[in-house]
Amino acid sequence: MSAPAGAATGPRPVAAAHTVSKRFGVTVALDEVSLEVSDGHVHALVGRNGAGKSTLVSVLTGLQAPDSGSVEFAGEPAPALADREAWRTKVACVYQKSTVIPSLSVAENLFLNRQGSGLISWRALRRRAQELLAAWEVDVDVRAPAERLGVEQRQLVEIARALSHGSRFIVLDEPTAQLDGNAIERLFARMRSLRESGVTFLFISHHLDEVYEVCDTVTVLRDARHIVTSPVAELDKTALVSAMTGEATGLMDLGAQRPAPAGEEVPALRVTGLGLPGVYEDVSLTVAPGEVVGLAGAGGSGKMAVGESIVGLRRAARGTVELAGVRPKPGSVPAALRAGVGFVPQDRHREGLVPELSIAENATLTVPERLGRFGFVGSRRRGELGAEAIENLDIKAAGPEQPVSALSGGNQQKVVMARALANRPKALVLMQPTAGVDVRAKETLLATASAAAGDGAGVLIISDDVDDLRPCDRVIVLFKGEVVIEMPQGWHDHDLIAAMEGIRD
Predict the structure, then answer these.
(1) Per-residue pLDDT tens digits for 335-344
(2) How far is residue 80's CA from residue 82's CA, in Å, rounded to a whole number?
(3) For the chain, is the Cβ count within 10 Å smaller at the N or the C terminus?
(4) Closest by alpha carbon to 315, among 299, 340, 335, 332?
């Protein structure tokens, strides 16, 4: 099943890492890891957070020099680390966190630092940009500010920019984490088209179904080591998860472990007739204390906008939101927090974290009253609460004072969850709570949500990831902004997905 490193079989490797090792202080990030990506393949790289994926990508893209081992492209040694232009002709990485500069136009982003010397001909620059995007079938206005682009459009612009340097090897780092189902399918179709044009991909994802849908080969890293490389068709999901975790595991049946909701008269959350024209209309739902309810839907369903309206990130045009009987001021996050909501936003990078602050500071941003009296913040108390968060959510960190920017994606998401729980919420609203995290981190996050319900909170999980919805007592499905069905626990995956996509019997 596992191909020996450096085996000379099949298509020639476009890129290869040979027995690469990398340390950061006493931490071993890579331990003699080898990887070969064959020409014209989509090669998956998977592993739990902290397995070494990000470090390997940084070595393959010339951002880090290995302590030992080597990197090759098409059989030739990698360029010198300082020769960035040479690296751009060999490999490019499209990161989960976009590198497009929002304040610049699409054309300026495409040719950043390549406008030429002297006066810039903006007309010529835009023409070159249009020709580039047309060549790769990317339908984006080159004059538009990049800040107006959606996630899908930003990714396509980054791919086109990478191809314009001459690279035909592209690393996609969690490209689907912020995309809905339809956008994911369009991305996969574009990847297949580009592969036929001679482009090779290294595809990093925590969504294992995607590995089986779009990838030819998969490599698993665990604890900084290479575990297995195999054709995807020859490695079933149970074996793949076992390789990633060191044991056979699946998402736990969390709903069965939780006591039944108390059925109290006052709901933890009541939404009545909520509407935002053009986004969603006449949405009503209730979540009882101790209950976990799912809100699902495909792209364009309006589910995330409903969640953002509940927690005050946006204001609905009509309808009401009640948190344990209290109606907070619409469109006000502070008012929603005071009324007893805790929430995990859809995008942890933009709305969930302050990267420069520590774990303890991020986890307690919403609860200054728990840190001291009369406006004084007690650093000792903050550290204690940060240490509790690390222990309760199994955050892999050196300590509560470690900056969250130094954590893996899964551990950052756990910090966001810790902050959501810090005010002991009566209603917990989780939007795409496991986006971009591995199987074990997903279990921890969903188990934490289930435990919060067990302690009496009402939990609303808003997601299009079927695994996120498994702990739910029932799932409400939106389609094009309207509630179309409510499905009790015990639903089948295909029925739920069909409802999300608007497919009726």
Answers:
(1) 999 999 999 9
(2) 6
(3) C
(4) 332
Are 420 and 344 a contacting pair, CB within 8 Å?
yes
Q: From start to end of 410-481, where are the E strands? A: 427-431, 458-462, 474-479
Residue type, 457: A
Q: For 37-96, give the DSSP string.
A: EETT-EEEEE--TTSSHHHHHHHHTTSS--SEEEEEETTEEPPPTT-HHHHHHH-EEE-S
Amino acid code (one letter) for 460: L
Other CB atoms within 10 Å distance of the CB of residue 493? 11
DSSP 260: P
To which residue do tokens 């009401």 refer?
320
pLDDT higher than threshold 60 for residue 116: no
Tokens found for residue 417: 């969850």
- Residue scoring higher pLDDT (370 or 318): 318
Calculate Rg over the CA atoms of the chain. 24
- Do residues 55 and 223 make contact, with C-beta atoms less than 8 angstroms apart? no
Give per-residue pLDDT as tens, 96-109.
777 788 888 888 88
Neighbours of 438 (CB within 10 A): 24
Which two three-digit tokens encode residue 194? Answer: 């580009």
Q: Which CA distances in Å does 361 have to 264, 343, 376?
A: 35, 17, 14
Q: Are the C-beta atoms of residues 344 and 355 closer than 8 Å to each other?
A: no
> Could you tell me the domains of the chain?
13-100+149-244 (3.40.50.300), 254-353+423-500 (3.40.50.300)
Nearest to 208 by CA among 178, 237, 248, 244: 237
pTM exceeds 0.85 for this model: no
